[in-house]
């Protein structure tokens, strides 16, 4: 398991390559919830998402020979950009397997960082088989989107900054992050346990990809009953590794519907004047849905990314 020193080492390692993103508040949203909310704005991060942290931390720990052969991954978008960005920063090749249904803006961004994009069918089996073929052909090293302690440690650095930069002057009662494959919530929960052990951690998951809530209840990795959600970045299934962190450090997982996610996304756009993607809006959707449970609390929310396909809005 990761330690406090592991997290701080990861933070020191990636510091020259990432932004220390701002922690913002919004009075209108606070009044709607009846609580004090601090938003850790990873939509302002390099590549537009928190995943720059984990991808960079993993890439920086490769050997010289591994760097020659490059890195590979599979991703619906943001982790692919993180791997492509890290490869460009370190001068090595990158190969990113992406489902053909991934947002075009994310495919274009991965190519823009100089990575090779290999498209596949939109299933986990197809992603894993395709990236295995790429690795066999190229000798590249896999940087998994979430089933990797280097990646998890990198993601946890966002929570280090959230706790250190908290502008309220009050300790957090609860910190929320979205749950997809579990890399972010694992790093978030571990960092919170190590730095602010009295703070509860809640995972936020879309109803249309609700595997983590079932896995937490059963104690084993479960599949979602169905996959259909606007939150395209949260469709992955937990790994045994991430479920282990969740069972140990996450207090609860709550669900939000697509309509609730859209409403939260729109609220942030309108009231905070910042762009966030649907996956990013799930924690706020949960807080708004269950606001009676959060009254008078100090809440931290990881705003995970802002990579929206603007082609849907502007033609």
From TrEMBL:
The keyword Transmembrane helix does not apply. The keyword Membrane does not apply. Residues 14-305 form the Tryptophan synthase beta chain-like PALP domain. It comes from the Bacteria. Keywords: Pyridoxal phosphate. It holds the Pfam family PALP. Its cofactor is pyridoxal 5'-phosphate. PANTHER family: SERINE / THREONINE RACEMASE FAMILY MEMBER, SERINE RACEMASE. This is Threonine/serine dehydratase. The lineage of its organism: Bacteria, Pseudomonadati, Bacteroidota, Cytophagia, Cytophagales.
């Amino acid at each position: 398991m990761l330690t406090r020193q592991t997290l701080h080492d990861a933070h020191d390692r990636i510091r020259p390559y990432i932004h220390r993103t701002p922690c913002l508040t919004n009075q209108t949203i606070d009044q709607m919830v009846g609580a004090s909310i601090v938003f850790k704005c990873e939509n302002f991060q390099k590549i537009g998402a928190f995943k720059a942290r984990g991808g960079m931390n993993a890439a920086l720990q490769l050997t010289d020979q591994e760097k020659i052969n490059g890195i590979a991954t599979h991703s619906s978008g943001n982790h692919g950009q993180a791997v492509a960005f890290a490869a460009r920063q370190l001068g090595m090749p990158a190969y990113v397997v992406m489902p053909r249904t991934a947002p075009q803006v994310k495919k274009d961004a991965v190519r823009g960082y100089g990575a090779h994009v290999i498209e596949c069918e939109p299933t986990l089996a197809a992603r894993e088989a395709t990236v295995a073929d790429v690795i066999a052909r190229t000798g590249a090293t896999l940087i998994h989107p979430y089933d990797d302690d280097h990646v998890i440690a990198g993601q946890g650095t966002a929570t280090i900054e959230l706790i250190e930069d908290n502008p309220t002057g009050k300790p957090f009662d609860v910190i929320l992050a979205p749950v997809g494959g579990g890399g972010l919530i694992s790093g978030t929960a571990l960092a919170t346990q190590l730095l602010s052990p009295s703070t509860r951690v809640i995972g936020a998951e879309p109803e249309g990809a609700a595997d983590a809530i079932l896995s937490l209840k059963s104690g084993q990795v479960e599949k979602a009953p169905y996959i259909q959600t606007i939150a395209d970045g949260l469709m992955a299934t937990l790994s045994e590794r991430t479920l282990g962190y969740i069972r140990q450090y996450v207090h609860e997982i709550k669900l939000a519907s697509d309509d609730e996610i859209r409403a939260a996304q729109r609220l942030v756009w309108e009231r905070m004047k910042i762009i966030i993607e649907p996956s990013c809006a799930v924690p706020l959707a949960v807080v708004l849905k269950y606001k009676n449970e959060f009254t008078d609390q100090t809440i931290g929310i990881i705003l995970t990314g802002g990579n929206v396909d603007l082609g849907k809005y502007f033609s």
